[in-house]
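Bit of a strange request maybe. I'm writing a small parser for structure token strings and I need a real example to test against, not something I typed by hand. Could someone generate the tokens for this chain?
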Amino acid sequence: MGTSIDTRAGEDQSRVQALEAKVQELTRRLDSLEERAPEDRVAIVVFSGDLDRVLAAFVIATGAAAMGQEVSMFFTFWGLSALKKGSELSGKTFFQKAMAMMSPASSLDLPVSKMNYFGVGAKMLRAMMKEKNVSSLEDMIALARELGVRAIACEMSRDVMGIKDSELVGDLEHGGVASFLADSLKSRTSLFI
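Reply from user aminoacidic:
Good idea to test on real output. This should exercise your parser:
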């Protein structure tokens, strides 16, 4: 009789230990899932250097920020043109100089994605926006800053294209794809424009 009670007590002890181990494993997995759960954030990759597409990116970004969402915009390759305030040629390689001369020098020089016709389309779009009291891209960029939208300039694209700090507007963050992916993993919405 005494042996049977000892055996049962030993089995109960084993079950309790197994349950404790299972609870610890479930707690660890729950903590991991909570860390990866999306937050009220929006992450936008701005790849395009077209005025209409960059405008759309800033409309979404400022709209989301106005709704209280945390927004980050990752500017890469042609999208960096929206953040340029001018072009410099000194200190660049031949190809980087050629790229700088063929790319828009600032947001004011961005073409439209369709019917650009050597810049006429972009001028028409800006005139039509002004006529309808729609904020310009430059106003949208300023609004985004006021609303706390993070602007991240892609380091790799800058390096390849030879874009210097002095060519970009101030108050930018600089980062690589890991910066964007970290934001994207925590965001409910991720867009590529």
